[in-house]
Amino acid sequence: MEGELVAVQTCARAIVRWLAAQKIAIDGEVLPYFPGVLAIFGHGNALGLGDALADMQNTLPTLRGQSEEGMGLAAVAYAKAMRRQQAMVVTTSIGPGALNVVTAAGTALANRLPMLILSGDTHQSRIPDPVLQQIEHFGTPSITVNDAFRSVVRYWDRITTPSQILTSLPQALMMMLDPATCGPAFLALPQDVQAMAFDYPESFFAEQVHEIPRPRAAVHELRKCADLINASQRPIIVAGGGVHYSLAEKELADFADTHHIPVVETMAGKASLLWSNSRLIGPLGVTGSDRVNALVEEADLIIAVGTRLQDFTTGSWTLFGEKALIAINTARFDASKRRAHPVVGDAQATLAELHALILRPANTDWLERAQTLKDQSNSDRQDRRDNVTSLPSYAQIVIAVNEVATEDDYVLTAAGGLPGELNNNWLTKGVATFDCEYGFSCMGYEISGAFGAAIAQKDRKKSGRVIAMTGDGSYLMLNSDIYSAVLLGYPLTLVVCDNGGYAIISRLQTGNGADSFRTMLTENPDVVVPRVDFVAHAASMGADAYRVTNVAELAEIVSSTRDSERVVVIVIEMAPAIWTEGGAFWEVGVPEVSHKPSVRDARRTLDEEKKKQRIY
User: 341-365: per-residue pLDDT in tens?
Assistant: First the structure.
């Protein structure tokens, strides 16, 4: 703009100044939208972004990570704990440093969570090529490893000249703020471009206060939704992660209570309601309860709120049959799946606007049926708790921790056997206090995610403790953020459930007629396999580490260390094959032909179940 003040800045410094200027209004308070940067520096970002970040440490703190994947997963967990209202920046060098974040980007995209990734790139000039860590494509010299991010982010750009950030950064931010498009954004930053100077307008660095929009549903979609609800006798609400992201927990509780509709939860939607709420019946789907799934099958209308209807929710689309389906979602893509009647809008606003349109009387028989099933689920859980075994089961470990947890504690897990066990056995005491990363089912998320959630707990000034639960397999995949939490002073508790391998995959194999193969450490009884000393390993990174032999000891240490300012790791050996049984059908790749009768039987069962699928 003519006459406007300009500032000669390097591209990297301009990026950092712009990031620090972005604010978000939350409950009347103005906070940084990007509260921090998780960084590992190398020759692709150390001298450009690194130097600029060092000078802005007081306004945009930079935290050192131990692995690029871990940093990315910590950013994912942070965004989820903040319910998409704030997002972390992740910066890496070129080559392997950048590629290490691809898995975390996929995790963010699957879960519709915001994160800004700034990765170094090879020189735009190409004069020094090939540089260290550069992969050359003979026929397409413009391709670098950063092109690998295109399939796992919502926004992708390569900055080839300093002026491009004037439009690219705001576009990336608008995508992250929009509930319909929210996901990770990626900018490839060639290291020579980071160092280039440009006359940036000073207005580019002015503070901007953003608010997350609440898109309203079209009137005709609301009316159609209300007509279906009014005509139903046995409606049920499926609460998904979108309930949390739109801060709609109160609206959901009021809607379900006023209109006498039972609520069931997806994995991402767990902790939308407290377990003490009579309308909440429990978890549905593959990792859900048989009792809840029975209720879903008896329903005549499914009201899906803020869920992308993943196969674990729908039982690979066998659970809903051909019954009427309403999908309330900010993304039309999700709201229109499988002939659903779409209501494209924010969950909080939509539930509030639907109130006056619902005229159906209470079906007391339906509510009593739902409550009966919930009571039976409670009885099932008590039986699992009291079942005497030589080694504790998953359920007993989860229940023991749950019983000593407070309403402010934040529990976190991912992948393997723990998601189903927590889904069924963790009874919610506080709203939005549960994170199971099951959108991408990413092993290794548990520890890095706990680190990210612990940062969020401190930023939110929450008194509760982050309690993460992981298996030995995930621990071995990615554990270095134990040291990150120790180094940076973020207290958390990690419960390591050692079952001697990838027990859930062994269960998948044997449950479908195959042999357990390369999953458990004890598969060959003639070979003695050394077991990892997780206590010594965690202690070597500075954690307070304990080994316990039973759930009473576990509960005592969780309780006695809850106010500790240190990282606490508790290791317990557990039964590898005692599971919380139940759940819906899950379609997996059982061979159509096999020499094994057990596999042929499993295939016949799969083919029978597939006949129940809702195919479009």
Answer: 999 999 999 999 999 999 989 899 9
Q: Which CATH superfamily is domain 219-375 in?
A: TPP-binding domain (3.40.50.1220)
Q: Return the CATH class of domain 6-210.
A: alpha beta
Give Cα separations from 202 to 9, 56, 159, 223, 433 (angstroms).
Answer: 10, 17, 20, 48, 41
Buried b (16+ CB within 10 A) or exposed e, 527-546: eeeeeeebbebbeebebbbb
CA angle 422, 427, 433 (to 5 degrees): 80
Distance CA 77, CA 73 (A): 6
Question: Is-contact 523 500, C-beta < 8 A?
Answer: no
pLDDT of residue 231: 97
Torsion (CA) 457, 461, 464, 465 in degrees, nearest 10: 40
Over residues 3-48, the pLDDT tens digits come to 678 889 999 999 999 999 999 999 999 999 999 999 999 999 999 9
The CATH homologous superfamily for domain 387-573 is: Thiamin diphosphate (ThDP)-binding fold, Pyr/PP domains (3.40.50.970)
Please give the angle made by the CA atoms of 95, 100 and 106, to the nearest 5 degrees.
125
CA distance 335 to 600: 37
Which residue type sits at 293? Answer: N
Residue spans per domain, the chain: 6-210, 219-375, 387-573
* Closest-CA residue to 439 (of 74, 76, 70, 69): 76
Q: What is the pLDDT of residue 138?
A: 95
Confidence (pLDDT) at 5:
83
Strand arrangement of the beta sheet that strand 29-32 belongs to: 29-32, 22-26, 208-210
User: In this predicted structure, what is the pLDDT of residue 460?
Assistant: 86
Cα–Cα distances in Å, from 612 out to 43, 314, 319?
55, 12, 8
The list of the chain residues with pLDDT below 70 reads 1-3
| Summary count for the chain: helices (H), strands (E) | 24, 23
**Which 8-state DSSP code applies to residue 520?**
B
Q: What share of the chain is helix, strand, coil (3-state, %, to 5)?
A: 40, 20, 40
340 and 314 Cβ atoms separated by less than 8 Å: no
Cα–Cα distance, 257 to 518 (Å, whole number): 49
